[in-house]
Amino acid sequence: MVDAQAADVHVVLTERDGEMVWAVLRTGATRASRVYPSRLDAIAVARRISRRDHAALYIEQSDGTIKQQSAGPARHYTSHAETTPRPGTPAGPPGDAA
Question: Where are the stretches annotated Disordered (predicted)?
Fold first, then answer.
């Protein structure tokens, strides 16, 4: 069962071993869950974690300001690839067959 009070997930730029990397961490955590050299890789993992745990997602810019935020799975930003139906699948919502 998923905890309704899951800690928020953050993507932040941080220094690790003298290099700037993107970290995925939970609110209140002292260590990152994961660390990536690519911001896009960190965002992809953070989105999966926040959706799975029904947690809010905060994506920070390199200056520390929040670029995007979501309150939970229903408000996650989706890419074009996620909203485009695959060939051979119905284009409308389930149960909307003509």
Answer: 60-98
